[in-house]
User: Fold this.
Amino acid sequence: MGEVILWELRFVWISICLGLLLRGAYDFILIIRQLIKHSDIIVGIEDFIFWIICCLQVFELMYKQNNGTIRGFACIGVFLGMGIYHFGPSSYIVSWITILIKKIVIFIGKPVKIIKKPLKILRKKVRIKIKQKKKKRSEGDGDKT
Assistant:
């Protein structure tokens, strides 16, 4: 194979990898959305920012790898990479990681709940003591005048 063809194959491979990476990054946003509910406006803003970042990444790829010349096969490579990831492991990864994070939160939440109750009682007692001391001080300050 000629050097030019090898270079173009490498460029397509890099484009596909960029597509995989960008779609994987979007999964992170999807996981956050499943853990924390977002309004439609916030979802729109997040998506807008994400796609701007994607465009900048594709532009950087074109600029660094191809001297700024837009090559159709590079754009197709990015979309192909995104499609492979989207129709491949994406839904499994999002659901598995979401379930894992929820289980971790539950696992950590149980001891926190156990500790939280005595701490609430202790905090209440400390507040009562502080109020009593303040009351005594204010009564004592009233006698001095």
Remarks:
- The chain has a mean pLDDT of 87.
- The two ends are 101 Å apart (CA to CA).
- The chain has one domain: 3-108.
- The chain has three helices and no strands.
